[in-house]
Amino acid sequence: MRSAEDFRALERSRLQALVERDMPLARRLHAPDFQLVTPRGVPYSRDEYLAEVESGGLRYLKWEPKAIDVRLFPEVVLLRYQAHLEMGFGGPQAAAFDCWHTDSYELRDGAWQVVWSQATAIR
Question: What does the pLDDT read at residue 91?
Fold first, then answer.
């Protein structure tokens, strides 16, 4: 099994891939049945989510996680953290906000992939 620090590094690399729009890495790290639920309560499939990132319709300008808490299980890992995000939505406007993230990773065919991601805005 990998260490908690390995999963913190894996999550940071996923966030960096999204900010940099490194789509090959993002596709490898997100399971085919991945689902994100946004702070607005909108669910996205992996294909919908990554298509928005790739097209620039959803632009992560900054994604700065604070301390990442990790729960390790043999084939599932849970991560929870607060983060500061700055995002663009296809136009010149940008939004900045803080939110909680909870992500679950599963071991699939020897590789760890994120399967669920839940973001909750901090008011």
Answer: 64
